Amino acid sequence: MMFEKRLSVLESTSATFIRKIWKGEKDLWLTRTQLDDLKKFLALMMYRSEYRRNQYYNDEFDEMTRLTIIKHMRHKNIAKIQDVWFDNLKWIIMTSMEDILMEYFRAAKYETMSPMEILLSYSGPIHVTELMDYADQVHKFVCIWEAQEGSEFILSEGCFDSFEGQGGISFHHFFVISPRYAIVLVLRDYMGGEGDLHKILFRKSWFEDFHVNPEVVYTKAHPLRKLTIDDFCPTDVFKYRRIVIPRDKVFLVNSIFLDARRKCVTYKSNISMYKSLRYYDKNKAKLFHMRHDYTVLKRKLFREMNRTHSS
What is the pTM of this model? Predict the structure, then answer.
């Protein structure tokens, strides 16, 4: 219950912001502290998902990850792999964002080590791969996407656990909060074309043009002085606006969810769902890995749309 109480604080901050998005309010802002709470809540929602939990409960890891887990269990005196999941969860919930990032910098020795070196050398309060994943998520920028009229985001048990990426790097993580809106965490290198990531990857993101930096009001910054990290303050305000995503890109987001499907898919609009399935079928051979067959659902939707149109 102690952990649920701490989680409820993060959930309350996130729910207040999400309700503002639902209501169409233009005044969408978060303080730096509230933004940290939102990112932490989204990361915890991913980690608490049935899929991630089952990885530990069913021991569904590659050999390298399993070796690092066993090393972590010895370090923390944990008897079962299943207990590592809850031990990680407790630490993330109870640890401040600042202390989590400091732990990551300690693990990475200020990013002078390669990911493989970190995996092999790190010993600390959390399993190393979860620490790296968490640090990756909280360093991302937040965007708010709105589906263009005539399209809707679909829902599934994977829509808080699906991403677009390549080679172990996730460009975007999607969190659908309604058929109309999604909160998206975006890799910093795709916000304004920063860094050299474009040069080393085999492909670019499928959603490069749909990012807007928030307007930031810095509490401590001086107008005549160059901004530094020392000017960052918990009361800094980040002001967001919605970004309208064209229909074909909404269908592409839905296709990512369709390919990551585990058990169920939920939709509101028959027409939008049908168009998403058509988009997925057209592109799954060249874009996706699982390539599920949705023929039965597509036929069902086609019949329902024809019956509605005829009446």
Answer: 0.89
